[in-house]
Design goal:
four-stranded antiparallel sheet; Rossmann fold; eleven-stranded mixed sheet; Immunoglobulin-like; 3 domains; alpha/beta
């Protein structure tokens, strides 16, 4: 009898000990990367009133707080310039020691399958790239697939060091982006991948974001249930983005849109809404760089072109950038296997715009404005200061429309940093469009070798065939 009582008391003691244990979300762990030169938030759970002390070994300055009446706590730590390894110690009723912590540049990678796609799934040159992927100062955190009806406090995942084995199962684009940053900046890089193949953008924003916009409500209603992932607003956001929002990041990468081609025009509202939603939750306007979807034959009539143009028009949101991949896509495969160049283009964009390395090419030509010159139209582009080039004898994929709104094939020629287009049958041109089909072979590039984006001049409403 006495023996049973002892066991009972020990069990109760252990139970109470566990109930009082200070804890942190899984985003805090050994091998993590904290944003350098920043005020970062560390947070977790503790018994109400329990004293919690957090110390970073880079300065050994303890920061103390107490568990709130909701059993939550958070502190701010000032991180040093890139370096490490350091230790972060969290002490309350128990002690948590996080080891091999680095400070550097932290980027969030998100979207659907093309962002999630790994070397293990099959990429070009995997046999050369995987064995080379030993980078102790690049770290990965992969967020597990989950859904929720309301914002959650934690995600599934853990930080791991970049090795050939861990790289093989991480976002290939994320890895190649991170490797370029690491080599160019010589600082540790932390990459958080929160992606889910086949998901529309609606699942990655808060339900409130969709509810307050009729355009987004209509687009969300057009989504059909699928067996491989959620389609309802907020489902992935609540479980896979909201828990990360206190974690300091340098910026976000986004590759998504294929699952929104059922309502492509709405994407010009959806993507800015997503960007603003995330920035509001993080509390600052971090850089947001995204990949334009690649050409693909099986989208609905012109839906791929309409969505690509919607992505281009989303550049009106400040501190954003877009990578065009129409020259390295695959019209027969929605998952082009050249992830290396996508990652490099994203890295060059970030290095140019976020890190001031202006020798890196930031973008291909982006339509800026048109001017009518009699029966001709002159097109002006950003990112074409050094001139435009064509990789073929003719300059394909341009169309012009007159006052009837009907587009016809146009003759186009490069004139320095502009393009002049005309069609014999159009006497009074009012609109131009470029690469207006689901499948295209790009013809217009800047001298950095980057392709021009699909576009439709926006100052007219023309009939769509």
């Amino acid at each position: 009898m006495k023996k049973s009582l002892v066991f009972f008391l020990v069990a109760i003691t252990l139970s109470l000990s566990n109930a009082w244990a200070v804890s942190v979300p899984s985003i805090f762990g050994s091998h993590m990367v904290l944003q350098q030169n920043a005020e970062v938030t560390v947070w977790g759970s503790a018994k109400p009133g329990e004293e919690v002390t957090v110390t970073g070994s880079w300065d050994n300055k303890p920061v103390t707080t107490k568990g709130s009446n909701l059993a939550k706590w958070s502190v701010k730590l000032n991180t040093p310039a890139a370096g490490g390894p350091y230790t972060v110690t969290i002490k309350g009723h128990n002690t948590i020691t996080l080891e091999d912590v680095l400070t550097g540049e932290v980027w969030l990678c998100s979207g659907q399958s093309n962002m999630e796609w790994s070397a293990a799934a099959g990429i070009d040159h995997a046999e050369q790239e995987v064995p080379k992927a030993t980078y102790p100062e690049i770290r990965f955190f992969s967020v597990g697939h989950q859904t929720a009806d309301g914002p959650q406090l934690d995600v599934q995942g853990e930080w791991v060091v970049c090795t050939p084995e861990t790289m093989k199962h991480f976002s290939a684009i994320g890895y190649f982006f991170g490797r370029e940053l690491y080599q160019a900046l010589d600082v540790p890089v932390g990459l958080i991948n929160s992606s889910w193949g086949g998901t529309p953008a609606e699942v990655w924003v808060s339900p409130e974001t969709v509810d307050k916009d009729p355009v987004l409500q209509k687009a969300a209603a057009a989504q059909k249930e699928v067996p491989y992932g959620p389609v309802q607003p907020g489902k992935a956001y609540n479980a896979m983005i909201a828990p990360l929002t206190p974690y300091k990041i340098a910026g976000a990468l986004w590759y998504q849109g294929e699952s929104n081609t059922n309502a492509p025009e709405a994407y010009a509202t959806m993507l800015p809404a997503l960007i603003n939603n995330w920035r509001s939750d993080w509390g600052y306007e971090f850089p947001f760089y995204y990949v334009q979807i690649a050409p693909y034959k099986d989208y609905g009539p012109q839906a791929g072109a309409v969505l690509r143009d919607a992505q281009r028009r989303s550049l009106r949101v400040p501190n954003t950038g877009m990578v065009v991949v129409s020259d390295i896509g695959d019209n027969d495969d929605i998952h082009p296997r050249n992830k290396l160049d996508v990652g490099k283009r994203l890295a060059n964009l970030a290095l140019n715009k976020a890190y001031g390395k202006t020798d890196r090419p930031a973008s291909g030509p982006l339509f800026r404005e048109m001017k009518v010159e009699g029966r001709k139209v002159r097109l002006y582009f950003d990112y074409a200061e050094s001139g435009l080039v064509s990789k073929s004898k003719e300059l394909p994929n341009f169309e012009v429309a007159g006052e009837d709104g009907k587009f016809v094939k146009a003759d186009a020629k490069i004139d320095g940093s502009t393009v002049v287009v005309q069609a014999k049958s159009v006497k009074k041109p009012v609109a131009v469009r470029y690469e207006w089909s689901n499948t295209v072979t790009p013809g217009l590039f800047n001298k950095a070798g980057l392709p021009a984006s699909t576009f439709r001049t926006e100052n007219v409403t023309a009939k769509q065939e």
